[in-house]
Amino acid sequence: MLPLEGLKVVELGHYIAGPFATRLLADMGAEVIKVEPPEGDPIRGWGSTHNGHPVWFSIHGRNKMSVTLDLKSPEGRARVIALCARADALVENFRPGYLERIGLGPLVLQAANPRLVIARVSGYGQDGPYRDKPAFGAIGEAMGGLRHLTANPGQAEFPPPRCGVSISDDLAGMYAAMAVVSACWGRDRKGEAGRGRIVDLDLVSSVFSLMEGMLPEYGLTGAIRQPAGAAIPTAAPTNTYPCGDGKWLCVAGNSDLIFGRLMRAIGRPELAADPRMVNNTSRCLHVGELDGAIADWTRTLSAKDAQAVLEAAEVPCSRLFDMRDCVEDPHFQAREMVIPVQDPLLGPVLHPAPPFRFDGVTPPEMVRWTAPAIGAHNEHVFGTLLGDAA
Question: Transmembrane segments in this chain: where (predicted)?
């Protein structure tokens, strides 16, 4: 039994943020009906393919039912309304105003189902001067403040890199999933009198919400946090260090006790006893010296061997894992974080496990099926669930 079993969700949208939210809800047991255009979600064309089918979409559409509709046709609109009439929630991530223009705005949908929760995910939000501007995940990173921080100091000639995944889409999707569950819970507390809410989420504010203490710091002192590369300016030593095999080791040795263990492990006990290194504040003033000492040591070992030495000393650390490292790691395996599944379109494939655990349900049980083909559930949804009522 998964906690959201019985929750009915309709997904309207494409690409990443909205579908990521519904994937999380589906992984937790919700019935998710993904409405795609007849040609399919455009993201089915992204990334690598195998047997002519998109690999990423196997995860992106898992545990969902796929139906196809032309939202601009009378039949398509009628069926969306019918789907929403039986649903608890709708998640959509079109540009603001699009659903209203095609006759499927909240007033129409909640007239058919006053209890419907509608989560609207967009680049900039449903109002404000930028609401009509197009946006993708990279824009959320840029305007939300994250991309400014990913630069390496002293390398102004290079653009600050993205983090490697569509982080602002994923963040907005996670917030949307949490907001949907919260809105449904609040509605259901009121029983039959409960009404659905409209939730407004955007990529920019999702990233901006993660900026830790930077806003109050600026408000109080005018300070603007600058890029720090792999280090943490307020904690020392915490950085990523080069190893003898060309790989990197991330080390977090900033508490007083851990710092002492770290210095002894790398053969520099005198630094642990140095009055200049008595606490984190003092160490931050001499972080260059500390980073140099640690790097001198890590360069003499492979990343794996250096990690083993520091772990034996109970110093938090990890080499930088690539996907092979993740798949082969015994902790990943013991926690069933990598799940082998059979995809009818791709064959045997690996999926990441849902990141949450529930009593009595193992991660493989949470992946009930992989992403279906375009419109695979048209007959079941329109014929069985709706009875062609639309």
Answer: none
Q: Is residue 222 part of a domain?
A: no
Mean of all residue pLDDT scores within the chain: 96
> Catalytic site residues?
169
Q: Are residues 94 and 145 in the same domain?
A: yes
CATH number for the domain spanning 179: value is 3.40.50.10540
10 Å CB burial of residue 331 (0-12, 13-18, 19+) is exposed
Are residues 288 and 178 part of one domain?
no
Decide if 224 is inside a domain: no
Q: Are 67 and 381 in contact (CB under 8 A)?
A: yes
Are residues 193 and 56 part of one domain?
A: yes
Instruction: Residue 75: give the domain boundaries.
Output: 8-209+335-385
- Residue from 142, 182, 186 nearest 166 by CA: 142
Instruction: Give the chain's domain count.
Output: 2
* Number of residues in the chain: 390
Omega of the bond prior to 354 within 30 degrees of 0, cis?
Answer: no
| Burial of residue 324 (number of CB atoms within 10 Å: 0-12, 13-18, 19+) | exposed
Residue 185 sits in the same domain as residue 55 = yes
The H helix count followed by the E strand count for the chain is 19, 13
The pLDDT tens digits of the residues spanning 192-207 come to 899 999 999 999 999 9
Whether 228 is in a domain gets the answer no
Instruction: Give the relative orientation of helices 167-189 and 17-27 as an angle to the nearest 10 degrees.
Output: 50
**In sequence order, what are the residues at sequence separation of 6 or more whose Cβ sits closer than 8 angstroms to the Cβ of residue 152?**
158, 227, 229
**Are 286 and 313 members of one domain?**
yes
Per-residue pLDDT tens digits for 306-338: 999 999 999 999 999 999 999 999 999 999 999
Q: What are 248's strand-pairing partners?
A: 242
Cβ–Cβ under 8 Å, residues 251 and 241: yes
What is the reported pTM? 0.94
- Six token digits for residue 148: 């400014």
217-245 pLDDT tens trace? 999 999 999 999 999 989 999 999 999 99
Report the SS3 class of residue 60.
helix
